[in-house]
Amino acid sequence: MTDSSLPLIDVAPLVAGMAGRDAVAAQIGAACRAHGFFYVTGHGVDPALVQRLEALSHRFFELPEDTKMQWRMALGGRAWRGYFPLGGELTSGRPDWKEGLYLGTELAATHPRVQAKTPVHGPNLFPSVPDFRETILAYMGAVTQLGHRLMEGIALSLGLSADYFAQRYTADPLILFRLFNYPTQAVPEGLDVQWGVGEHTDYGLLTLLHQDHIGGLAVHTPDGWIDAPPVAGSFVCNIGDMLDRMTGGLYRSTPHRVKRNTSGHDRLSFPLFFDPNFEARVQRIEGLAGAEARDDSAERWDRANVHAFSGRYGDYLLAKVSKVFPQLRDEVL
């Protein structure tokens, strides 16, 4: 266990497909049932790659805003890629105190999904920082592979075949990736702006987060809000609304938020969202014991009943992100 009481799981046997992966899966399952958050070590992602991405991200975010706006999201079109400035993203209708770069699976303009104008698919807007493009793509590739292995562990933890999710949802997952920078800022007196990101749940299956040494993540467990401080060499993982939906609430998508950064140093955070294919139709897993699919909308931050959702994952995603960037929604969609 970590200081935050979130479990720390060595997933090396799962990543390598070795003996012991069932025991790892059991630990993941226990975490998903308890509060939907856990740290992973032994993940196989090269720490030098992570350090390189941090250094290049600092270099990008230190550029003047006018320069960064050359890669603004409005230029990314339906791919929903690019830079947004401080306060340019909303959570629960309120501006976040962060800036960021939206990225995803790199698809050429000739790709069939791009030709079909499928939202959130297309080419990235890579800033012209040397080695940035190559480093981002290498990082996304490595963490996506980790996502595949962790979803195998989640499947095993539910008593399913290891390829359950790959067969139905994630053979070609929707990968959305974010580089976030939280500038250090004092909290103005008399204003309720203590959060860098307000309370929310993630939309899809699994989020894999690298946070730098500063930290700031807080998780709403059954025992109340607790901090999820940085653990060197780890990723913080949490499950999203669609896994909650698939498991009938057996595995819950847990609300979390980010404290406003007052550390004196800018804070970096890199969440990668490993989600069902855009066209995948999300369905309940049949026969799971203890899965009630209870309507918990009265308790949720967004008053939504995830168990009532039926349809393509892409429809759920677009309904959510359209609230995050309402102006972009109006211009693009």
Terminal CA distance: 44 Å
Determine the mean pLDDT: 90
The H/E string reads: EHHEHHEEEEHHHEEEEEEHEEEEHH
Beta percentage is 15-25%
> Please, how many helices?
10
Task: Characterize the overall form.
Answer: globular
**Spatial strand sequence of the major β-sheet:** 1-2-12-9-14-7-6-3
Largest sheet, strands/sense/barrel: 8 strands, mixed
Query: What level of helicity do the residues show?
Result: 25-40%
Total strand count, please?
Answer: 16
Task: Classify the secondary structure makeup into a structural class.
Answer: alpha+beta
Low-confidence stretches: none
Instruction: Output the radius of gyration.
Output: 19 Å
What order do the helices and strands come in, and which of them pair?
Blueprint: E1 8-10, H1 12-16, H2 21-34, E2 37-41, H3 47-61, H4 65-68, E3 82-84, E4 90-91, E5 94-95, E6 99-104, H5 112-115, H6 132-157, H7 164-170, E7 174-182, E8 195-200, E9 206-211, E10 217-221, E11 224-227, E12 235-239, H8 241-246, E13 256-259, E14 267-275, E15 281-282, E16 311-312, H9 313-324, H10 326-332
Parallel strand pairs: 1-2
Antiparallel strand pairs: 2-12, 3-6, 4-5, 6-7, 7-14, 8-13, 9-12, 9-14, 10-11, 10-13, 15-16
Helix pairs in contact: 2-6, 3-6, 6-7, 9-10
